[in-house]
Amino acid sequence: MGDVIEAGAASAKRAVVTGASSGIGAASVRALVKAGWTVVALARREAKLKALVEEVGPAASYVVCDLTDEASTQAAVERVLAGGPVKALVNCAGAAFGKDPVATASLDDWRGMYELNVIGTLRITQKLLPGLKRAPGGGTVLVISSTAGIEPYEGGAGYCASKFAERVMARVLRLEQIGEPLRVIDIAPGMVETDEFSLKRFGGDAQRAAAVYAGVPSPLKAEDIAECVTWALGQPDTVDIDQIVVRPRAEGSYTKVYRER
Ligand SMILES: NC(=O)c1ccc[n+]([C@@H]2O[C@H](COP(=O)([O-])OP(=O)(O)OC[C@H]3O[C@@H](n4cnc5c(N)ncnc54)[C@H](OP(=O)(O)O)[C@@H]3O)[C@@H](O)[C@H]2O)c1
Q1: CATH 3.40.50.720 fits 3-252, yes or no
Q2: Dihedrals φ, ψ of 17, to 5°?
Q3: What pLDDT digit, counting tens, does each position of 46-89 carry?
Q4: Shortest-distance Cα residue to atom 45 of ligand 1
Q5: Where is the Ketoreductase domain (predicted)?
Q6: Which of 65, 117, 157, 240 fits 76 for a cystine, CB–CB 3.0-4.6 Å?
């Protein structure tokens, strides 16, 4: 397994960001380092993680990790903890596969979304939870869920169901941990134009992916969500930003989007 553990002493503000090889996760690594955090970036694609860490500098490191694989995640968590304590876990890894109606949707697509968005998030959260709670001042579990976890839309049942589940997981964890030194933050973005998300959803069909954002004046960028992540984590340890719902101005809901023709 390729990985890089930081050489220097771990900072008290040390975060793990999953899904860090692209999009919102990569932007969050950049923003958190700028805000003074030490960050460990997790994802499967080593070349992308390596390039990000080289760009960001010594405050960032990476560990290769497949969150759908128990052994890979366990090994990654051990490598992370060997580098020092962790104060924040940013659960950004996630995906949508397909946009088919319930009547005909692929079981494998649904299974893939559940394995990553729900079980993968649960798996790494469980493994890091004890250490997060031991962090000086307390720790934070943050999830990047989605407005798909608030309002379902046609063709989105599988993705929406997985994001509803992710939001419920965060909410219930928050309730269960009251009195413990733990914050649980749920950031639910609407339309964010990232390079890969829609492309993966539509199996590499660039035309279908581009149509998602066509004519929308200023969809959100990954950096906008990274700003929310950095701001929420930067609040005092005793201030829990329970939920943030953030959309582009042009999007009122998934089905109410203004497009310039
Ligand atoms: N873009 C949007 O409009 C939008 C809106 C609301 C919410 N979100 C949510 O925001 C999060 C990030 O989205 P994004 O737009 O930044 O998408 P993205 O660029 O496709 O990023 C997804 C990340 O997840 C990682 N990943 C995928 N499978 C993995 C696995 N098995 N194990 C570990 N990591 C894995 C990917 O890295 P590797 O392939 O290298 O593993 C990648 O870094 C997702 O949870 C998504 O549901 C996105």
Answers
A1: yes
A2: -115, 120
A3: 999 999 999 999 999 999 999 999 999 999 999 999 999 999 99
A4: 94
A5: 13-181
A6: 65
